[in-house]
Every structure is written in C-alpha cells, then in structure tokens.
Amino acid sequence: MTEKAVVNYLRRNDLHDILYETLARKMILEFGHFLEQEDATGEIMAESRRDADTTVLSAFLSSTKDSTFDVGARYCLWAENCRKRITSLTFQNKKGLSFGLEVADLFGWAHFYSEYGSTHPVSSVAKKRRVEARVERTEEAMESLYAKSPEDLTDARTRSVAADRVSEFTEALKNFRSASGPSGTLPGIPDRP
To answer: What is the superkingdom listed in this entry's lineage (predicted)?
Structure first.
C-alpha cells in the first residue's frame, strides 16, 4: 500500500488537512483568549489557500462553538471568547497581503529553516551567510515577542483542541485498514493498490 493511496483515501474523507485545521483551531482559540485578556476585539486575516480556505473556515467555526469542546474545559470558555471578541475572518490573496501576514511568513520560514534546514541548499558561500544572518536576526526578534516558550502541540493537546477531528481521523484509518485486502487493494477500487 502506497503513501499516495492513504493520502487519497484521507482526501476523499476530508481528513487530509487535519493538522493544518488543528493548528488553525489552536491559534484562533489563543487569539480569542488574548483578546479577552486585553478586553479588545480583533479580526483574523488569513492568506488564501484557494480550495483549502474551507479548512480555515471550518477551524474558525469549530473554535467558536462550545459544543466542540468538553464541558468545563478551558477551550469551552475560550470558544465563547472567540465568539465575543473576533469580529471577522478574511482571506487575502498574494496581491492583497498585509504587512502582518508577511511577517508571519518570515517567522515561519526562519523557524522551519533553523529546525530542518533548507530544501534547496545554497551553493554560494556569501548567500548562505546572508540567509543564516537573516534567520538569526528573525529568531532574535521572535524570542523578544514570546511571553512564554513556544508550545508543542502534544497528542493530549491535539485531542483537547480537535477531539472530534481526531476521532474521525482514527475511525477513517481503522476503516481503511480493515477494508484493504492483503494486497493493499483499496475498497471500491479493485486491482489497484
């Protein structure tokens, strides 16, 4: 059974973007909580991913419903904060991007580069120095913004933020495994691994 077959199965079951949706939920909940603490309102502006905008919209809608979370859980209260404090969700394409989205991209790029390196190694020594200096300056700027250390999204935290989606994902994988024959044949697709 190939990785592509699993990804296609997850896509058909609308579960291919589960990590992106979970992280979006977490950020939306954190933002609503932040706005509550500051007694402020705010809006969310997301970079459009075209067909995948529904993932962010779904995360937003889930993050503003109490019923998404266990009764009494902190995220249940934070969902209420999101409903009260977040005034809009807007999608922007590359032409309409704001400074804030560009800074978020820069921070994401610098973190990814420092953690995993470059997928396209730089051949020029001078360019490599410039890139590494830019990453270092960006990381220094990010560290000054942290009120606390960055948080890892552990299994338990993922379940508390997106228990409904984790359950759907787990069930889909069980169904996939049980429906696949010994040759790796997918359900409804005879003779195709």
So the answer is: Bacteria
Tell me which DSSP letter residue 110 carries: H
The upper half-sphere exposure of residue 41, i.e. CA atoms within 13 Å in the direction of its Cβ, equals: 7
Residue type, 55: T
With 80 as the cut, is the pLDDT of residue 181 above it? no
pLDDT value, residue 129: 85
CB atoms within 10 A of CB 31: 19
What are 58's two structure tokens?
């779904």
Distance CA 82, CA 25 (A): 11
**pLDDT single digits (tens) 111-125:** 777 777 776 777 788
Structural tokens at position 188: 């409804």
pLDDT digits (tens, 9 = 90+) for 30-49: 899 999 999 999 999 888 87
- Compute the distance between CA of residue 12 and CA of residue 141 in angstroms, rounded to an integer: 41
Indicate whether 190 belongs to any domain.
Answer: no
- Mean pLDDT over 49-74 rounds to 83
C-beta atoms surrounding 148 within 10 Å: 5
Is residue 5, in this structure, part of any structural domain at all?
no
User: Do residue 53 and residue 136 come from a single domain?
Assistant: no
